[in-house]
Predict the 3D structure of the following.
Amino acid sequence: MKKALVTGGAGGIGEAVCRRLYLEGFYVYVNYAHSKEKAEKIAEEINGSALCFDVSDSMQVKNAFESLGRLDLLVNNAGISVIELFTSVDDEKASQILNVNLKGAMNCSRSALTEMIRAKSGNIINISSMWGQCGASCEVDYSASKAGIIGFTKALAKEVGPSGIRVNCVCPGFIMTEMNNKFTQEELQMIKEEIPLGIFGEPSHIADAVAFLSSEQSAYITGQILAVNGGMVI
């Protein structure tokens, strides 16, 4: 059975991706840092395993991946954000955003690649954001981290392509998850008016994109950025 690990697997998008990959025939490791109960519940329901480690801690990542052996698929989904003026974000929070969102993906990829390169086979899918493509006011640190994911995807795809490993990126638009519960109904309506398709994205839309990039239907696709945003950023 193919093995996949999804970082941040207990979040809204992460959960949808875990459940979809299970339907696609993967044995799924549901990574979490804090949401133990939810991760274990998801893992139980999809006959997978919950795995606790902090993606920003390279030693925790290394130890976790050594216990797994070779993965067929790594989905770097773990991420955090803050909506504040750039000048109001303190050093600790700024470092945390970069360490989880960007360094976390790099830590996990570095550890996963050891066995993937040896097997000359593997697949890495990074979850960025539309704000990584165009930037967002009051989410500067987050936008920078997600733009870094795009550059990381393109560079790594070139480096590991000769080893038979594909690396691609999904850029979600406005997806209805807990992260966006802070918006008022008036704010949500204003945002919706900026989306050409006129609807908000659902976690399942991102899971569909991940399923495609994890399948043989995308066997000749690497280093690409797949925007799933209803046309909000083109």
User: Anything to note?
Assistant: The CA atoms of residues 172 and 206 lie 7 Å apart. The chain has eight helices and seven strands. The chain has a mean pLDDT of 97. The domain at 2-227 is CATH 3.40.50.720 (Rossmann fold).
